[in-house]
Amino acid sequence: ATCVHGCKYGECTGPNKCKCFPGFTGKTCNQDLNECGLKPRPCEHRCMNTHGSYKCYCLNGYMLMPDGTCASSRTCAMVNCQYGCEEVKGHVQCLCPSGGLQLGPNGRTCIDIDECSTGKAVCLYNRRCVNTFGSFYCKCQLGYELKYTSGRYNCVDVNECVTNRHRCNLHAECLNTQGSFQCKCKQGYQGSGFDCA
What we know:
Layout (H helix, E strand, L loop, with lengths): L9 E5 L2 E4 L3 E2 L5 E2 L13 E5 L2 E5 L4 E3 L5 E3 L1 H6 L5 E4 L2 E4 L6 E3 L6 E3 L2 H4 L8 E6 L2 E6 L3 E6 L2 E6 L2 H4 L8 E6 L2 E6 L12
Antiparallel strand pairs: 1-2, 3-4, 5-6, 7-8, 9-10, 11-12, 13-14, 15-16, 17-18
């Protein structure tokens, strides 16, 4: 089975047919599936879509149960949490629906943790970290694209000279480099490669 355009977050199962990993959709499995928009809804109260997944949380005055449902709680209602709460031995604590969020100074609202700047996120070689609200994902560095090669996904150098993504002068040659390209004026011409005279 070969998929000309590849399957970004999935497997190639037939000629140009992709089987997407859970949480992804599209012809080449390159789009995040918004589980919060599915019917039936996956969460009882509120739903937060994340890259490849989702998180459930409850309205104020309710506690999030292990099965994703919300149970009414008088104590929670009094604390006024942004995303629901849990009671441990009579002590009420506000919850954040993701490990990428932390309780703010007021102990009730959740603020984003930038995993990319704190160094909590580890991205493989040739990948850069992109922070999202409550999470992060790794994206190929500029000049690289995600391709399925040798049974796994790798960030492979884009040959800008072949894809015509270069801006070399008409009288210049394009030379591909790792993650980028260079322009060199042809014989009899001088200049930067972008400008040749």
